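Hello,

Our lab assistant flagged a job as stuck in the queue for most of the afternoon. It eventually completed. Since we weren't sure the result was trustworthy after the delay, we are filing this so someone can double-check. Below is the sequence as submitted and the structure that was eventually returned. Let us know if re-running is recommended.
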Amino acid sequence: MRLRPATKDTSGPPRSLLVLGGTSEIGLATARRLIVRRTRTVRLAGRPSPALESAADGLRALGADVRTVAFDALDPASHAAALGKVFADGPVDMVLLAFGIPGDQAHDEADPLAAVRVAQTNYTGAVSAALVSAAALQAQGHGSLVVLSSVAGERARREDFIYGSSKAGLDTFTQGLGDAMEGTGVHVMVVRPGAVRSRSPRATVAGRPYGPVPVPETTPEAVAAAIELGLRRRSETVWVPGALRLVMSALRHLPRPLYRRLLV
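-- returned structure --
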């Protein structure tokens, strides 16, 4: 049975979803949750790989029409063409920007080119993909752009300031893009997860403890649930878990000498 194509309907969960970063655990958890609700068309964008195809097969098993899209965050010149093909196939109700790399702080400090790769992937590539997606959503007159930021971008830490700075830039950019899209029919939402328990052996540096400060852990599934709730509420900023808003507010305003003593 062929699934009906997506139509313009902003009254509930998205019928069509584009995940930039098609093997992201959070991206796939979100796709699974939305498919259970009513999402019927999913496009997983990422570098062609067995992992990407396996992710697509897993979502097809849930009943969705799923296709993979060749996409490279480090090749901004290709973004307009690659994503343009997705939007040319039909309306996209939601774009989830879920790609990023944690890097290796100790190694990257000694290898500027490696540090630049983290910045280009997490910030430069994301800026390009977000602008292309926002323009396409605006042209169709509706849709949501959800961008995964990180609690690591809230304030620099000695142990992950390369990664954190890339997420800080992305977070600020996304907030500004949301202001730019106000009144266009495009909803922009930034999501700030904290310590995400991951199945990957390369867990995100955002999950490292903030020294003696307790930072509540979360899971990809919990982030997905928060994204769905944020969509329903048309939120502009989502913290996961919600208690992080208070924790980071306190840390953000600590005097720098005290902050350094606690967390460095």
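-- support follow-up --
The delay was a queue issue, not a problem with the job. The result is valid. The chain is about 45% helix and 15% strand. The first helix runs from residue 25 to 37.
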